[in-house]
């Protein structure tokens, strides 16, 4: 969440390209683009719904707590949008306040997961769906967002339990989507182009975190 500002990347808007399939679209490239856009919106067709189980989690160590539907967009990842990145966030508040914010339809933002200081993991959005967490539409579509309870200016908030639980989660995400375990694919919110957020901040120990992710990645699931 960083500065806890609402996402403004326009994820909630359906692209106009999806409406340009008519006779005005003469160029073959545009037609292909429009068909691709419509394919990504297949779930809007009446009577079509991808099979889902209520309360199902993608990570076995997580507990399901649903975010407001206003804070994410239904998708069919990685079939419609490939996932090649994990974005690390800090809540700038307590675990409970982050959950409350993500359940608020007026917040206009939420991450897939929240990791508490004691290592508890909550999943609020399915990985197959697009969460409004990065403030950049392209990055939202291609990433999984993980929030961490605490404040960027309080290094004591980043506990060993939090680092280890988050590293196991990130390792499983990387394994599931064949994401390289490196700093080009596991980034902080501050590194997302166009963002005004600063999290996870200078006290986040990237060296320690990446070491834990690599160790978890090579350990049995």
UniProtKB/TrEMBL annotation:
Q: Does the keyword Lipoprotein apply?
A: no
What does UniProt give as the signal peptide span? Answer: none
Q: In this protein, which residues make up the domain named N-acetylmuramoyl-L-alanine amidase?
A: 72-201
Q: What is this protein called?
A: N-acetylmuramoyl-L-alanine amidase
Coiled coil ranges: none
Q: Does the keyword Aminoacyl-tRNA synthetase apply?
A: no
EC number assigned by the record:
3.5.1.28
The record ties this protein, via Pfam families, to: Amidase_2
Keyword annotations of the record? Cell wall biogenesis/degradation, Hydrolase
A GO molecular function annotation here is: N-acetylmuramoyl-L-alanine amidase activity
Reaction catalysed by this enzyme: Hydrolyzes the link between N-acetylmuramoyl residues and L-amino acid residues in certain cell-wall glycopeptides
Uppermost EC category: hydrolase
Q: Which organism does this sequence originate in?
A: Streptomyces tibetensis
Stored InterPro entries: Amidase/PGRP_sf, Amidase_domain, NAMLAA_amidase_2
